[in-house]
Amino acid sequence: MTKYRIHPAWLVAAVAFVALVGAAGFRATPSVMIRPLHEEFGWSLGTISAAVSVNLMLYGLTAPFAAALMERFGIRRVVMAALLLVAAGSGLTVFMRSSWQLILLWGVLVGLGTGSMALGFVATIAGRWFVKHRGLVTGVLTAGGAAGNLVFLPVLATLTENSGWRVAALTVTVAALLVVPLVWWRLRDHPAELGMGALGGEYAEPKPIAAAGAARTALRALGQAARTRPFWLLAGGFAICGATTNGLVGTHFIPAAHDHGMAETTAAGLLALVGVFDIVGTVFSGWLTDRVDSRILLGAYYFLRGLSLLVLPSLFAAAAHPSMLVFILFYGLDWVATVPPTVTLCREYFGESGAVVFGWVFAAHQIGAAAAATSAGLVRDQLGAYTWAWYGAGALAILASVLSLMLFAGRRLRPIAPGIGLAVAVAKA
């Protein structure tokens, strides 16, 4: 076994963090280009938003297949291919002339690329390279998504405003291509390649992977996991997580605040603060996950989130008063704090299949987000206010807390064979 002064797992995590920051930044690009594209091509906002919707759905639905591809072909190859897809999807937009090309490039190519570097990638890196500090690493890598939006969005907005949307699109292409050699140089598929075990674990040869295709592997994992109670409890809770974050607050907070007289720039600044506190909350949640039962953490996170959403309608005003700032602080800390314990539970309940199963759980997150975004808009159209959307989301978050605590009655599963596959329960949780 080879010895290193610094365990290579930390270098792998660092490269993964860079890729995740980039992926989050690439996903932020459409939000700064909607207006310029509308003005230049005359496309409706609905048409442009359709490309964004395709991007969001593929971002979620690609995750389980990407995790299966990483099992089959290796992490490094999949991430490099994902970066090349993002580079192509963004770069080719400078030549587009029709709206279907926008949907193909932004929606499909960039959606597939960023989805391959989503939270399934986080679960794979943390599960394969770390035993010790696994929860903390999961939190740090998850926070990379928030950091990417914070870093890239102001830069891309400035480039679009001063130099045009094509320069911003080409900047994303160059950034994606610059990460490719770094991934090739430092990202390794398994600790055994370097003659060592995961950080905090024993040396072990990689388990042989079945020859089944990635799609078959991912669907098989879904089919087997879907026959278990823990999967539906985790997926249901995470769907509510997506509904109460990206779907509702991320999409409708600004127009809801504007309904109460708050300037859009002020509301946008409050959401930016959510992103800042999100980084702190997710890293801290990862640290807690290494020390506290993940089911208890999820129960607490969702319950407190539900209470905060029930209070939110009374906090809206024309100015950002202290009570609203307290809400922003809390909601930022709780925004994706649910990810580290959810990743941990997927691995605990589904063993070696955990990363692929988490990909499906994350797909439920995105479906929940899409459903909430549409539902809240309908509530606003029909009732003239978002009040009942916030109340409904608060009740759902409390339900997610109950679902998380119901995991105490579940049973952990073990792989039926090397690779993907689940067997009957072997121990009480």
From TrEMBL:
Is Lipoprotein a UniProt keyword of this protein? no
* Name used for this protein in its record: Sugar phosphate permease
Q: Which InterPro entries match?
A: MFS, MFS_dom, MFS_trans_sf, Proton-linked_MCT
Q: Which SUPFAM superfamilies match?
A: MFS general substrate transporter
Q: Where are the transmembrane segments?
A: 41-66, 78-96, 102-123, 135-157, 163-185, 231-254, 266-288, 309-333, 388-409
Give the location in the cell.
Cell membrane
Recorded GO cellular component terms are:
plasma membrane
Q: Which UniProt keywords apply?
A: Membrane, Transmembrane, Transmembrane helix
